[in-house]
Write a structure and sequence with these properties.
Distance between the termini: 60 Å
Structural class: alpha+beta
Largest sheet: 7 strands, antiparallel
Number of strands: 25
Length: 519
Amino acid sequence: MSVKELEKEQTERQASFGLMAWLRWAWRTLTSMRTALILLFLLALGSVPGSLVPQRGVEPDKVARLYEQSPTLAEWYDRFQLFEVFTSTWFAAIYLLLFTSLIGCIVPRTAVYLRELRRKPPAAPKHLSRLPHHAAFDGELTVEQAAARLRKRRFRVVTGDGWVSAEKGYLRETGNLFFHIALVGILLAVGAGSLYGYRGNVLVVEGDGFANTVAAYDRFIPGSRVSAESLEPFSFQLTDFEVAYQVAGDKRGQALDYTAHLKVNDTPTSPARDYDLKVNEPLEIDGTQTYLIGNGYAPVFRVTDGKGQVAFEGPVPCLIEDKATMTSGCVVKAPDAQPSQLGFLLRFLPTSVPLTDGTYASAFPGKINPEVQILGAFSGDLGMRSGKPQSVYELAEPEVMRKLKPVLMGSDAPKPLAVGQSVDLPGGLGKLEFTGVKEWITLQTAYDPGRMPALLAAATAVVAIALSLMIRRRRVFVRVGQGRVEVGGLTRTDNSAAGFAEEFADIVKVLSAGEKDVR
């Protein structure tokens, strides 16, 4: 063949590799076992940021704190959807590709598996001595006797003229197939949970209640098939919250136990029942689970304006600044104060102690000596009537803060206020009183209809992979005649010959029962 003919044939071959050929190649690559394993690894790797980075649906207060402490890092996290890993675009893409890859693997393998089940073991080779495992002995063993003894060992047996062929170990492929089906089941269960499930976060202060309605949540993440009527109509009241701390030793101040005492109404008409909510012991009502995920302090304040009227009164949830001592930052806003609005930046110290430099700090996370430091008091327009949403943990946006008038700053403020104490603002603008201490808890309510199916599928996957790894596919052949019996065996599974040698010896022993001169 000339050079021109070779070039022409190569050009025609390249031209024939068109769109359909590329699509077939892409499908074969996607549905290969290697690709499925890579996607499974990527799915596990993609779940790691969901454990390391605080998630908006679980720890919104930590997300807010990260924005305050490292705004640039938080912006990059948000840009890559790391605050919402399991609902991100890239995680969904891996999930869907893995789902497609598994389906593409299972369908053809199922067809092959069914054909293998219907196929009978092959006839015994003529020269059994060439097989990896071989034995021979003298005896008058018949084909029927050999077949019966192999069937007792749960072999599939076929017989012929002077020979027996037996095969065992089909559960290996069964386990392999069910493992892949279980993985698809897990993906389907997760998908069902995202469609028909929901999650919500809410902060509840001692003495307050909660009803399982969309409006009651601070953050609500419904599935695409969830409506307001889908929520279970339960409610509860937080009567008390207790935290037990280590009081001595190297781990002094470490939390030992959390208990939220609730009065729960399973339905609007059912009587209230007592329930102690603890970490990892959720309240469950008809499949809806409520978890305790966080806690903090909510000191109670009363703000009296310049006209002697109470402009604000109630508990204020504070954002934890130091977890070890539960030192917390608080913001009090009084937009109804007259003659001008009032705002306060405060620091709550659960166990306040004076330091040698004249400052104060908290020495213990429990509320042994609760006091409040005044970091700043401001008057002016807080911007709360602008229509823009505002954080309860920030007094105002930076441009609004620049317009506020400081009336009392930390250096001019008196020593920290104890419960029952108050401070008068200069110029007759009003008064701030510290009247008590309550605690708040953050809860996550979740309904996931795919939770139990996912658990069953995961259990099936574990059992199936165990079958796949422990069971060997093997064949045994027997030839009888003229007072001579030959036995041969081989495995159809890599790296299992050593394990089969012992079994083969037992099979020969069973076949030669009552016979002698085994070689």
